[in-house]
Task: inverse folding
């Protein structure tokens, strides 16, 4: 197998030739003189010839060094150029941001926030991918994701924004016809709509400040991997659902839906922004994170701000 070329060695060689001495090259590269000398020695050993004539008083290129200098200088220049370009893109508010978000949240809450950011940063390109499945940010090369869940420990960096209540809701007509459950055991006589990615399936779990925890299996008439599917059936008075507050707060305010069992709580979900591991985020990504955090924490359904 062919070895990779010693690009670092050739770049150091070009800098030594440009600077005219090992000491000045080391100073410009912010390396020790020993490191520079070892790189040249390593390179000469690799190619089997010397690149510099060195005496106590002067240094000059050999014929081999003269022949290699133009291409070595190109290696150094291209390396400096690519680092400068990437650093500039990282610092400037331009370039692509790939974002993953849950489907319902992305359409109803994220999308309305984007125009203001886009108008302020016309050189930033947004690629939004919506799915309720948990995507792999690193493998699928996402810059960030909005997650509504209890985050598992991982190498991902997370910025908690707020907590989101899960409410038991139904239409007023449903409660008028079927009664309003007061205890989780009452749900056995009702029909429920089930979100597919709920870990406990059609067993709904509640906590009461005095009575503790209670789990109840609810007869399931409708199941979907997107909670917005339940809207029409809920408003038609066909059953009950545990819905995140961001999906139903307007319908609750307008009286089109009502809550039940308010003294029994479902464990809330956390809304967080997660990013791949690493200390440095491009400026455009950090700007979008800060913007979304500031806006989302002020939403009417964002009940409990988390410490950031």
Result:
């Amino acid at each position: 197998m062919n070895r990779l070329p010693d690009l670092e060695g050739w770049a150091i060689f070009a800098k030594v030739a440009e600077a005219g001495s090992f000491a000045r090259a080391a100073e410009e590269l912010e390396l020790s003189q020993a490191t520079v000398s070892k790189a040249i020695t390593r390179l000469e050993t690799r190619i089997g010839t010397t690149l510099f004539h060195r005496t106590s008083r002067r240094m000059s290129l050999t014929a081999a060094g003269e022949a290699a200098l133009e291409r070595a200088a190109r290696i150094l220049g291209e390396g400096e150029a690519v680092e400068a370009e990437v650093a500039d893109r990282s610092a400037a508010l331009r370039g692509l941001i790939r974002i993953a978000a849950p489907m319902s949240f992305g359409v109803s809450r994220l999308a309305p926030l984007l125009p203001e950011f886009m108008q302020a940063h016309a050189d930033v390109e947004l690629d939004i991918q919506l799915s309720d499945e948990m995507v792999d940010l690193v493998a699928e090369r996402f810059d960030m994701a909005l997650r509504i869940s209890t985050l598992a420990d991982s190498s991902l960096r997370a910025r908690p924004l707020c907590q989101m209540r899960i409410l038991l809701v139904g239409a007023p007509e449903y409660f008028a016809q079927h009664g309003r459950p007061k205890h989780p055991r009452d749900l056995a006589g009702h029909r429920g709509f089930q979100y597919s990615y709920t870990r406990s399936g059609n067993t709904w779990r509640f906590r009461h400040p005095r009575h503790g925890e209670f789990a109840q299996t609810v007869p399931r008439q409708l199941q979907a991997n997107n909670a917005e599917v339940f809207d029409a059936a809920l408003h038609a008075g066909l059953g009950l659902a545990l819905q995140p507050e961001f999906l139903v707060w307007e319908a609750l305010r307008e009286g089109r839906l009502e809550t039940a069992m308010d003294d029994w709580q479902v464990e809330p979900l956390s809304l967080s922004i997660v990013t791949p591991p690493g200390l440095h985020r491009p400026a455009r990504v950090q700007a979008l994170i800060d913007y979304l955090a500031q806006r989302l924490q002020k939403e009417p359904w964002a009940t409990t701000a988390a410490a950031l």
Remarks:
- Residues 63-91 form the longest helix (29 residues).
- The chain has ten helices and 15 strands.
- Residues 10 and 72 are 5 Å apart (CA to CA).
- The longest strand covers residues 157-164.
